[in-house]
Specification:
single chain; 2 helices; elongated
């Protein structure tokens, strides 16, 4: 309350001295800045809330060993209007990075990716598929 009285006094003084420009400057509020949230393999099963315009970066690690590569598919949202993919990259070891931007409309999107084995000639893979899921709510 005391701060509001001081702001009012500044505005009145500014109006008298400089035709009101000080008042407009004192009352201006900065626009919220976008945040970047990073998600990795360890965030599987997590639920998080972001604001419109925030960036969600996903970094999933693949593994290459003795003729097999455990590679991730490209992470994808079930509702692209809620989370829009703006970048995608892959590593030679089966890893993947992706960046998503939260849309202006609120909502919830499930980000998913799958890790499966790819065998080199003469190698064999186990029939194991791992699923990575994160629930992102935009508010």
């Amino acid at each position: 309350m005391k701060a509001m009285r001081q702001l009012t006094a500044v505005c009145v003084a500014g109006a008298v001295l400089s035709t009101g420009t000080a008042c407009a400057w004192a009352q201006a509020t900065p626009a919220p800045t976008a945040h970047r949230i990073e998600l990795t393999d360890r965030d599987a099963g997590r639920a998080l809330t972001v604001r419109p315009g925030d960036d969600v970066e996903v970094r999933l690690t693949g593994v290459r060993d003795r003729g097999t590569t455990f590679a991730w598919s490209a992470p994808a949202p079930d509702h692209p209007a809620v989370l829009r993919r703006s970048a995608l990259g892959r590593t030679p070891t089966g890893g993947v990075t992706a960046r998503f931007t939260a849309g202006d409309r609120g909502g919830t999107a499930l980000l998913t990716a799958r890790r499966s084995c790819r065998a080199a000639p003469g190698s064999r893979c186990p029939h194991v598929v791992a699923t990575w899921r994160v629930t992102v709510t935009v508010r």
